[in-house]
Design goal:
- The chain is mainly alpha-helical and 248 residues long.
- The chain has one domain.
- The chain contains ten helices and no strands.
- α2 crosses α5 and α4 runs parallel beside α8.
């Protein structure tokens, strides 16, 4: 990416790999982490959105594959969320916000993600029955946000599922990974259909994200991410969100 010198570029790749490892360890594709890293280096919105969506697809597919093989994914639970989210994610992906609006929206998403990671969710067994209409509505709202910003939506879906007692922690991670995957594909398809382009350097970013995601996907199958690492990542997201707000 022509905006960065060589040293800064390698530092960005390292941050992307670390972010992918931390996020995939809780079942997420890592988009808010990638957006935070790119925001820290001042990359424009036209680069951030397609890059984050592309990295999301690779990492979330890897995490979902690992969790599904371990028996933690439930298609019946996932389907209503997907039905609501996919068309809205494609619509959001096709719509390009101006740079200031995009930065405010993404900074808000990063702040929510930071609060989510800083919290201490307890693992509980699911008790409530799935309300399909509510799942479709939640999926639609998060799908639109995903397409507009490049955030996959899993960081927002996870606490909702735990709050409503629809999943435990590992099935929650599988749901988040699947949700991020379909929304990112739909958002990227909408972006491409609207004439969007892939900036130079995206392939290297995807490779860095997959390296981190391979480590994190091993952690999510074996154990949950350490609380201290999640809180450190929350601090990085907070700093990036504030930087974006000041630059908007």
């Amino acid at each position: 990416m022509s905006e960065l010198d060589d040293l800064t570029w390698w530092l960005l790749l390292a941050l992307v790999a670390v972010g992918a490892a931390l996020y995939s360890s809780v079942g997420h594709g890592g988009a808010s982490g990638y957006l935070a890293a790119m925001a820290l280096f001042g990359l424009p919105a036209g680069v951030m959105k397609p890059a984050a969506l592309t990295m999301n697809i690779g990492v979330s597919a890897l995490v979902l594959w690992r969790l599904a093989r371990a028996g933690h994914f439930d298609w019946r639970l996932f389907l209503p969320f997907a039905l609501g989210s996919i068309p809205l994610a494609a619509l959001g992906g096709a719509y390009t916000l101006n740079d200031a609006t995009y930065r405010y929206l993404v900074s808000g998403a990063l702040l929510i993600a930071a609060a989510r990671l800083a919290a201490e969710p307890r693992d509980t067994e699911p008790r409530a029955r799935l309300a399909a209409w509510m799942a479709v509505a939640i999926g639609a709202g998060l799908g639109l946000l995903s397409g507009l910003t490049g955030v996959g939506g899993g960081i927002f879906l996870s606490p909702v599922l735990l709050l409503l007692r629809w999943t435990n922690m590992r099935s929650n991670a599988a749901m988040a990974a699947a949700f991020i995957l379909v929304n990112s594909i739909a958002g990227l398809a909408g972006y491409a259909a609207a004439g969007g382009f892939w900036p130079r350097g995206v392939a290297a970013l995807v490779v860095a994200a997959l390296i981190g995601g391979a480590l994190g996907s091993e952690l999510v199958v074996r154990r949950l991410a350490p609380a201290r690492l999640k809180k450190l990542l929350a601090l990085v997201l907070l700093i990036a969100a504030l930087k974006m707000i000041l630059a908007a």
